[in-house]
Amino acid sequence: MVKALRTLAQLMGWACALIGLLHVALGNAAIPGAASAGPTIDSWGRFMGAAFVGYGLAWVWAARQRPIPATVVRWLAAVFLLGGVGRLLSLAVSGRPHGFQLVLAVIELVLPPIFFWLADKEERAYSA
Prior knowledge:
Strand content: under 5%
Distance between the termini: 14 Å
Radius of gyration: 16 Å
Order of helices and strands: HHHH
Number of domains: 1
Low-confidence stretches: none
Mean pLDDT: 94
Helix content: over 70%
Shape: elongated
Number of helices: 4
Number of strands: 0
């Protein structure tokens, strides 16, 4: 389980960092359906991209610790889950977004429980 958690956390971290860098570099062009959203959304998207880089690097840091800090993994997974909940809220309030956003929502809602489970396994294994 430790190897699975470490590998998944590394993949999560590097994917988030890369996605964040793409948002910083491409602005609105990085968001399906938002290419003509205007300079305010472009500015916000680039800023949030930088925050996503930091979020991804926090995952990478956690994955490199020995043992992997289960509490940190839970917090990072909870933030990801909150993003998925935010997408559901947006769906309810504003309607159906671009299809790719729905795929991301599924990932953001399914992956955190896996991280919670793996973090628990890691913590129990280390405690024993």
